[in-house]
Amino acid sequence: MSSADRVASIMTTDPSDCDRCVIGIGADGMSLVLSIVAGALIVPVLILIGTATRLAAARREQRFAAMRLVGATPRQVSVISAVESTVAAVAGTLAGIALFFAFRPAIAQIPFTGERFFGGDLSLGLLDIVPVVVGVPLAAAVVARLALRRVQISPLGVTRRVTPSPPRAWRLVLLAAGVAELLYFVGRQPSSTNGQLIAYMSGFVMIMVGLVVAGPWLTLVGSRLLAARARRGAALIAGRRLADNPHAGFRAVSGLAVALFVTSVATGVMTTIVAERGEPRTGSVLSSALVQSFDTKGGAGGSKARIPAELASIPGVGAVHPVYANPEHEPSRPDWLPGLVPCADLARSPELGRCAPGAEVAYVWHDLLGPRRASNEPPVWAPAPVDAASVEKLPLLSVVVATDGSATAVERSRTVLEAAFPEVNRSPATVADYESDFRRTLVQWQQLANVVIVASLAIAGCSLAVGVAGGITERKRPFSLLRLTGVPIGMLRRVVTLESAVPLVFVALLAIGMGFVAAQLFLTSQLDYTLHAPGLAYYLAVAAGLLASFAIIASTLPLLRRITGPETARNE
Questions:
Q1: CA-to-CA distance for 243 and 555, rounded, in angstroms?
Q2: In contact, 491 and 234? CB cutoff 8 Å
Q3: Calpha distance 226→236 (Å, rounded)
Q4: Taking Cα atoms as reference points, which of 452, 450, 415, 414 lies closest to residue 433?
Q5: Which of 429, 441, 461 is nearest to 291 (CA)?
Q6: pLDDT tens digits for range 500-528
Q7: pLDDT tops 80 at residue 171
Q8: Nearest to residue 142, comparing CAs of 56, 82, 87, 92?
Q9: CB contact at 8 A, 48 and 459
Q10: CA-to-CA separations, 319 to 313, 322, 346, 350, 417, in angstroms, rounded
Q11: What is the C-alpha separation between 111 and 80, in angstroms, rounded?
Q12: Alpha helices (runs of H) in 278-406, residue ranges in sequence order
């Protein structure tokens, strides 16, 4: 075929070793993204484990207390509780790993990031399996030990319970510390990927843990407001019971608070990135300028003499601009720019900016564009204290070819540049090329964010169901006594609903607000963007999540009639 081109080679440069090669995300970038995803999922999972372990804690406490009364030692009780929890956890862990391997071929076909996976992409090594097999049973044993600490103090401690001390406002300290850490890195972005990972992940995790720590105090505040404004018996009972033990009231909704925080952060970040960079710049030199960059480390770089003369004669090419490397290496300065260009040369392309009056050389970005958008006016570049003759002796930082945007001009210029500099790993590309690749990556990130949101909400829903059911089971004797005194079952259901709804609403508002604050600080620090308000879909998703939560609470209410009969109220 006359229109066919022969492919003589394929680029094999790793994304980690190539600056803007338009070939994907580097390993460091993937580590940062996947680490944030893992952190967003691990905390809700840990909350679910803790909530599930406490599901039958009240009944187990009474059973182990009875064993203590007939002569069992604290050590024997600890061993029994640890074995019970560990055996169940080991069985569940092994079953989970077996299910993973069974469903791995099907999971690999799901295009989470826009493309299907290879089976090897979802492989697990010993370093992945061993921590899970050891960590999950160990965590279950520790939680069981903590849940039964009152039995260890005294076998009568289970029945002689006292009102725990109310939570204090100091519980907000960890939340404030997470915000302060993210705020500290605004304008102080770590230079390495590992530094960024530690900085942002620790801040996000600190806020998530801070929400869990501050939740009981917020529940106490909400319970006091509910009791103070109560006009009916159900509201008064619910307010008093929440104030008596806000820790137990918050425990059921803690997973949902973390899920709403994750949802708000993910939505805020993705909405802003789409608004700032989702639409390509077209119709101007900003989208059609072709840039060939060079590596200038160690004094290396391109040479002006090697720029082919035929490049300027290609139809559709307006000008060819050599950009020289700035010898002053001060990237920490906010006004520092990496390139230098003679003003006489820059005047041939007014859309790329102009020099200040009287300047001979200007400081510029390597692509003569920088982060500006197509709607911005061409910039006035800062003057550089050097003459044009001296600048032309410096190594090239890049070559910028101003084209009319036609495929012929761009592709012929690209071919000429690649032939002139075959040793350069950076392929010549336009801003449109970069943004096209970024839009594909953005779609992948959006899908990954959706997976995180759905998974975290599903985990939170399980935690809510387990927490509400466990709370009803723990309080079945008080509820039975209330029924014996004439309280109708309908009022008890309203009490349970209010006890779950009050901490749910208060903590949801805080989690959503903290999510947007964290997203704003991350965007400002990492990308210098201002948070954009999410669209209607976000508010519908939050409303649907809250409605689903109330539906889950309602689904546990039939337990009240079954477990609050007269036989439960007897003295044991």
A1: 25
A2: yes
A3: 7
A4: 414
A5: 429
A6: 788 888 888 888 899 899 989 988 887 77
A7: yes
A8: 82
A9: yes
A10: 9, 10, 9, 11, 14
A11: 45
A12: 285-288, 343-346, 388-391
Calpha distance 319→346 (Å, rounded):
9
Chain segment 404-434, per-residue pLDDT in tens: 888 888 889 889 888 888 887 777 888 777 6
Tell me the one-letter amino acid at 68: R
Residue with tokens 């990492």: 526
d(CA 178, CA 48): 23
Picking from 9-18, 409-418, 472-481, 533-542, which range would have the lowest pLDDT averaged per residue?
9-18
Q: Tell me the three state secondary structure of residue 329.
A: coil
Of the candidates 442, 287, 288, 290, the one whose C-alpha atom is nearest the C-alpha of residue 374 is 287
H-type helices in 475-535, by residue range?
476-484, 489-526
d(CA 169, CA 179): 17
State the average pLDDT over residues 360-375.
Answer: 78
196, 319, 321, 342, 374 from 345: Cα distances, Å = 39, 9, 7, 5, 22
CA distance between the termini of the chain? 91
Mean pLDDT of the region 225-237: 79
**CB contact at 8 A, 321 and 352:** yes
Strands 429-430 and 380-381: unpaired
| Of 5, 43, 375, residue with least CA distance to 202 | 43
Please give the average per-residue pLDDT across 136-157, as a whole number. 65
Please check whether residue 25 is in contact with residue 440, taking contact to mean a CB–CB distance below 8 angstroms. Answer: no
- Sequence-distant (6+) residues with CB within 8 A of 10 are none
Residue 412 to residue 47: CA distance in whole angstroms? 58
Q: How far apart are alpha carbons 461 and 546 in whole angstroms?
A: 10
